[in-house]
Amino acid sequence: MRTTLCDRLGIEYPVFGFTPSEHVAAAISRAGGLGVLGCVRFNDPEELDRVLDWMDDNTGGRPYGVDVVMPAAVPAEGSAGDLGELIPAEHRAFVERTLAELGVPELPDGAAERGGVLGWLHSVARSHVDVALNHRIALIANALGSPPVDVIERAHAHDVPVAALAGRVDHAMRHVDNGVDLVVSQGYEAGGHTGEIASMVLLPEIVDAVGERAPVLAAGGIGSGRQAAAALALGASGVWMGSFWLATEEYRRGMAEASAMQDALVAARSADTVRTRIYTGKPARLLRTRWTEAWSAPDAPAPLPMPLQNLLVAEAHQRISAAGDPSVVSMPVGQIVGRMDRVRPVADIMGELVADFASTVDRLGTLR
Amino acid sequence: MRTTLCDRLGIEYPVFGFTPSEHVAAAISRAGGLGVLGCVRFNDPEELDRVLDWMDDNTGGRPYGVDVVMPAAVPAEGSAGDLGELIPAEHRAFVERTLAELGVPELPDGAAERGGVLGWLHSVARSHVDVALNHRIALIANALGSPPVDVIERAHAHDVPVAALAGRVDHAMRHVDNGVDLVVSQGYEAGGHTGEIASMVLLPEIVDAVGERAPVLAAGGIGSGRQAAAALALGASGVWMGSFWLATEEYRRGMAEASAMQDALVAARSADTVRTRIYTGKPARLLRTRWTEAWSAPDAPAPLPMPLQNLLVAEAHQRISAAGDPSVVSMPVGQIVGRMDRVRPVADIMGELVADFASTVDRLGTLR
Known about the structure:
The first copy, chain A, is an alpha/beta fold. Chain A has helices at 4-9, 22-30, 45-58, 80-84, 89-101, 122-132, 149-157, 169-177, 199-210, 225-233, 249-252, 258-267, 290-295, 308-323, 346-365, and strands at residues 15-19, 34-38, 64-68, 139-142, 162-166, 182-186, 192-193, 216-219, 238-241, 273-276, 284-287. Chain A folds into 2 domains: 4-75 and 117-249 and 344-362, TIM Barrel; 80-116 and 255-328, no CATH class. Chains A, B: It comes from Amycolatopsis suaedae.
């Protein structure tokens, strides 16, 4: 499995692995793909700096990337405290009542409250870029469209290419107009923030529209070599996988609370996801659990806009993680969750994907 | 482009074309695929009989199939008049008011009202099967899951294989348990009645679950050879296309009112569809127009269950067709509508698809 992106980025396989875990990201890079570390959870830039030091030392000299979250429209800025005053009491009461009804305990005394993820803020995302450019990163990806043009230009000044996710053709065209180097076509079936057009339709549309201006990666529904072959048949130059790495042994390292989440993912089928605004305020696909069902009940309030919704549910997410109940998980994941049937090492997933890709291409050759 | 289905069904390419038009169905069969005529519009079995006589004479001796609509759960039976009494006055008033607001004229005096499509009724669908089995059909497909087992057995007694559409793995398993010979994996992106799982995920899931018990066709998002290659990479033995044939010259024959509809489809992008219950009472993907938008307004009533909703909007559909306004079309179509950029002969579409499939497979071979 080789495309022009392999030489360009110095990777063995055009498999881009997005993950919030440095252990997973490093393992993806060591296995021949490009591990892309999600930065949104780092409220403190110094913590990101330490983690990227670790990445520099633990990727066996292979390239890796980072993923920041900069919405195209600059959202409200402010500290968690300032923004918190914008959250209606009705919403806070609903969250408290729902957690009680779902049997999610309070946090133990002394448990630090992280105060919500601020990585959605432009200022915080910019600090992520500043930190990352001091490391040997091979890619900056933006999960919410084009980063500001000056950020793209700074990355280019460091010889770092920029990728941006697109759920529609017009988004993709805006990205390349802004100087983005790699477009990630993110289909409806993907986990996290995602649009309404499925990969089978969206990917070749974006490939045709972008043409020679940028290679396109396929995101949404990829978890096997057959799916990677389908993506390359549709014109992708590589695949972008996120959900699939959640069911890995590496994901558990340094994440003691991952066990219930992995149990829930392994048990889930492809129909067990829901696209909802309750995670961040923008439509994102999550695992369907008792938590997401509570938010779709008739008495539930409408989710708040970004970044307020994530601040609203930040402590709830902490409590849910600590509770360790697979039926109350709050986790972004794509429809590919139906294929995540066991927890494996990253290298096993990569090895199987590459072998399956080769046999799929051979099989297709016989149908020519 | 050849799979085992070609020899089994006596077709040149494993391209199954669903269409309500006998002119399109015959052209698909003549072009080397399998034209599958939708029967749901035939309230009168004798009219279907005459049209199948025409198919027998105009397919150049090539095989063709029929598509009936038998819901798995038997819906209410009765004449249009009896059923009409179950429609609330509020719904009738909304339809009248909406058509007036959209500028859709009344039908001219003397225009026959067809009284709604009754093909959704089990009794009518059974009459379609009775008629079709007296013709040289090569396939009976059911758009809404497994037909009753006795219908499958009657088809088999005539050496006619049966296909059934599935939007989830459990549906597919029920079909093969019931004796269905071909499973059509219908992804979220498809037009008409469709589920929530996208083809990229659904298709390989169904292929794996069904195994050797039945070949699987890919429906949803197919309109090019690249997409056909992706489908075969994912394990399909052929493709099932519906929407794409709506933008053909053959579709206009005998359908004077098709012009506004085709104008609307050619102008639409992939984002211009909506999945709604307003067409039949079950979720179906339609072109987004001022008609579908009116039904999603806050003052719109909830759609009625099948078969009442279709009876409710039957005359509205007639008036809309007669009005010839592309902005008020009521038309099932998939997200592939974004690729339908001109009206062409069926044979051109087939030729381009087959050539594009071959070049895609060749290109993939170089990425091995």
